[in-house]
Design a protein that fits this description.
Blueprint: H1 12-19, E1 22-24, H2 26-29, E2 33-37, E3 48-55, E4 64-68, E5 74-77, H3 82-103, H4 109-115
Antiparallel strand pairs: 1-2, 2-3, 3-4, 4-5
Length: about 130
């Protein structure tokens, strides 16, 4: 499957995919929203994360954006505000190695979470504090 093919969120398979993803809350990442990460499993694309577009500890599968990790973070599906896109890109940059290892099954969920760096940076736009 090419990198730009929509994963969809309306099928039972897509609902199962979100169920099998690890959810990370703002307190875990420093981001203003919940994100989901997963190992590759049967995917035919490179590393991606799912980002909730609703701020806070929300897990709203109907309001998400899909973000590719490599070669650089970029939104593949959905829409992120410019401030959110900057924050997610910064977080992915801090955690690319951990994300790739988790995707490839090199680390467990616990190992992945223990490797995560939390986003904290000066000059952070107030919309993402």
């Amino acid at each position: 499957m090419p990198d730009d093919v929509d994963l969809g969120l309306s099928s039972p398979e897509a609902d199962q995919d979100l169920f099998e993803m690890a959810n990370l809350y703002p307190r875990d990442t420093g981001l203003p929203m919940t994100i989901w990460v997963s190992p590759r499993r049967h995917a035919h694309h490179d590393v991606r994360i799912r980002v909730c577009t609703t701020p806070g500890d929300q897990m709203d599968a109907n309001n998400t954006a899909t973000v590719a990790v490599r070669p650089q973070p970029r939104v593949l599906h959905g829409v992120l505000s410019p401030n959110y896109a900057v924050a997610v890109s910064a977080w992915v940059g801090l955690n690319e190695g951990a994300l790739v290892d988790y995707w490839n099954g090199v680390t467990s969920t616990v190992g992945f979470v223990n490797r995560l760096a939390k986003l904290t940076w000066e000059g952070q736009p107030s919309a993402i504090r």
